[in-house]
Write a structure and sequence with these properties.
This protein is an alpha/beta fold. The chain has one domain: Rossmann fold (3-Layer(aba) Sandwich). It is built from nine helices and twelve strands. The strands form three sheets. The chain has a six-stranded mixed beta sheet with strand order 6-7-8-3-9-10, sandwiched between helices. A four-stranded antiparallel beta sheet has the order 2-1-4-5, with helices on one face. α6 links the parallel β7 and β8. α4 packs across α5.
Length: 265
């Protein structure tokens, strides 16, 4: 299964948020989407999810136009974790995870429970299942919603062995340990031939965990390709600001050190 965009544009309030984008994204790798605020990262994720109105051009998954698929059909192809978390304080963690199965009403209760237990273990939230969402911090709630997306992903793979995971800023509220744990889980899924697309702000995390990068600037592609080729000082300055200085390292571990140019340097 491959995501294909052909001349995709998105208009919002009379402004083109994305402009004439064409690309192909393959399964079996972690594809990162990076760029400054307002570049169109969340919009691109919403287009890939089939959740964005005002789209021109064509977005297809395995040669099927997303516009031809209803909500349930989409839910059986890709799992999504949005940047904005829903207000679900009245639910328990287990009830939130059950939401990942809304398109899989044919699952037997025992099978559904096994998927929930598996996803909870993968996300490190097994001990939280009976507790209310109101008891947790923003970062902890984010981990629960990652687990909910994993429940949906596992259900998709149980049915057809091929799936996509779309994550919008999943590490934004996480401490370093849980950022690494979440992205290591994504890398493991990609190794099992899941397609993973992640919008990120942290360039070091992108360097460490993404196989390929899509760099957006003002709604167009500034660059795309293998991470080691794309994530360079030149790209960072061109996209994020000419006054920035960046040092990209690959050994002993990948990372990006960024600082602002001053009169002294």
């Amino acid at each position: 299964m491959t995501y294909e965009l052909q001349n995709v544009s998105v208009n919002r309030g009379g402004t083109k948020v994305l402009r004439d984008l064409s690309l192909s994204i393959e399964r079996g790798q972690v594809t990162g989407v990076i760029g400054p605020n307002g570049a169109g990262k969340s919009t691109l994720l919403a287009v890939l999810a089939g959740q964005m109105a005002g789209v021109s051009g064509q977005t297809a998954l395995d040669k099927k136009p997303l516009s031809s698929l209803d909500v349930n059909a989409l839910a059986r192809l890709r799992a999504v974790m949005a940047q904005q978390l829903p207000n679900d304080f009245h639910l328990t963690v287990e009830q939130v995870l059950q939401l990942g199965l809304y398109a899989f009403g044919d699952l037997a209760p025992k099978a559904a429970a096994l998927l929930i237990d598996q996803a909870a273990a993968m996300a490190g939230v097994s001990n939280w299942l009976p507790r209310s969402m109101a008891a947790f911090s923003m970062g902890q709630q984010q981990r629960v919603h990652f687990a909910r997306a994993l429940v949906q992903l596992l259900a998709i793979e149980r049915h057809q062995q091929r799936a996509w995971l779309l994550l919008d800023e999943p590490t934004a509220n996480q401490d370093p340990l849980h950022q690494q744990t979440l992205l290591a889980c994504c890398r493991q899924l990609a190794a099992q031939n899941t397609g993973v697309v992640i919008a990120l702000h942290d360039l070091t995390l992108a360097a460490q965990w993404c196989d390929r990068l899509i760099v957006l600037s003002a709604g167009v592609f500034a660059a795309q390709g293998p991470t080691r080729e794309i994530l360079t000082e030149d790209t960072i300055q061109r996209v994020f600001g000419a006054d920035l200085r960046a040092h990209v390292i690959h050994e002993p571990a990948a990372g990006v050190v960024i600082y602002q140019k001053t009169n002294d340097n």
